[in-house]
């Protein structure tokens, strides 16, 4: 049944330092797809701080040929997959260990360790992939100096790359060649990388602020060089930004990015040799959308910023993962915001980030995989590369910045590097450095309590009530906090919650805020720090009942409950100076209407769930000349089906879908004239640039087109669909072309059937565009259960493969995780499909399978018949013998 050790739980509390240190590693590779030979020569010494122990080296799917200690054969044994050496030199002296193994990269479908993609070699070592290359102490607190020699056939693998500096290269017999790389920085094994293949590069010389010269390179397959300019620009911006904002300079002569089309995740920050999913490198205007451009910018930034936050200072153990990920997401979010010239564009970026957090992380925090930002245990660490570690972790860092101020945070970062550069540390070390650099701050005062954000899982709820006292001219705001229990954490202690706050007067202007007892008013906005279970703020000198704007800028990752009237929300939507809360007011109104309609028995065709006031408010937003297109697009975008589902106790995905589609149709018809004006007013005829302002214009124009097509489908009119099809054919960039195609598909117009094959034919050699072509169809609005059959049909397409993660995700994950109404079918066929794909994928690539397995995380909230059928499907997967640790952990937690 279950493999031995399959469900071994690793606990944070069990951490002990390694019994040995590895100081140097000298690796030689004879690269061959079927059988690669790896010679690993290390110098080790005992760690005198812990009791003596045999040396236990991690290994996985390796063939061991030879082990030598100080040049002599030695006895060893295997303990599971670990190589155990007992007869090692005593004492503190360093000794040399030589291990010779082989592995089979071409058979490596997990894409962890050394693997082959498009006839080139790549590695992926985070978190525990290095053990698939050689026997090692594969844990991040073992940091060593690496030198690497690569040997391979020169014609097939002309480019040979590894971390650090190229120190030697030359010819070998038999058409082979070699390259030797030395990394000047110590690093944990998870940051090791090599690449070998037929690649070409875009190169850029730069001079840093400090006056040092560096070479930046972006390596891609020969046909893709014309898609590297944006990634290179993003990299140059990243280098400049980290110097300007944090005084952190590039510490390498050469910094390389390499793109591969077979990759489990987005990208990887290997020291000096970042390896990227092609999706986050390749872009030109013909093949990439504005969203692709902005994703590339933030992922390039993210990986580059890891060079300091992750690589120079790394994690002591994997429970500390958010130390590098939360901090680095925070940094990439700040980077993208700082690249915006207009404040409104920064606000748009913030809203987009919060939307991700609330639609993906909040459900995770309320479901079976809920875990603290610093988890206490895991079975498979790959399952903990989550939105909680990344996005909630980033919010925790952001709150620290809020509590100490932007300059205070920069000081804290400086102290963090002074203290810990070159070390493997913990989340506590980071928080301590930020607090110590700001001794007079709220963070320093509240640090132990603040750190509950690291230890307690679950999304806190902040409940607010406001009472106006006309006689006393005061407004009393009472805020209380609570947090639902999660597995293993029945009772939660109060969090430290910074609450951005303003009070709007009847004209929509911010009132000066003067708390009872304060000598003078303070100009809004202000941030109050909620630390108790309940707290009361009394504002004085208030002449009329104000409308509170609470949690401005989304100042903490919490759910805010406040019993606003519709009129108050409309007031905020029309007036709030805080763009986040302005947007949020519109979302609250829409959610409210959705919930009312979902609760009412049926949603007949032609139903109009939205009230006139809301529709009128949306019209005002669309017509407001002072608002940016990007912001309008966000306001007019209805809350997603997944977000609506989270607001309900019992979820009927079909009803949610029907109501949201009715709302879309209502906005389409009621605002038809405005959509037409908006579309015509947002045509740019100049050259394509992916900057926030023009992408916002394209996004709004695309949204207008979708609504015009929906309205036309309702009315039977063919003018706009016809225009859309023309637009699709004549578009000068992928954003406009894809938006037009999506408008036809999403409105269900017959012309979609003509446009889709045409699109495929145009881009048949562009894998990333074909991914979009697949996911547009598998994510399309379900009409009478038509999507599942379409998905099955698409899986028979010649371009489909389950082995390529991007392709598998674009078809299977988009359907199961991005198309609730298509997936949650009353006949359970969606769940059956899911369970088959999870099992099938698990045998190929457990990481991709385990992510897909999470599609049913929220099964217990479903209404019948979905609930029982979903549970049954999960149980079916869980019952399968030989499941990977990855998938086993996900499904067993779901059933627990
Ligand atoms: N560390 C990578 C990042 O976030 C993500 C990653 C994890 C990539 C595991 C591959 C494997 O930047
Ligand atoms: Zn990262």
UniProtKB/TrEMBL annotation:
Residues 458-562 form the Peptidase M1 alanyl aminopeptidase Ig-like fold domain. GO terms for molecular function: alanyl aminopeptidase activity; metallopeptidase activity; zinc ion binding. It comes from the Bacteria. One of its GO terms (biological process) is proteolysis. NCBIfam families: pepN_proteo. Aminopeptidase N is involved in the degradation of intracellular peptides generated by protein breakdown during normal growth as well as in response to nutrient starvation. This is Aminopeptidase N. It comes from Polaromonas eurypsychrophila. The gene is pepN.
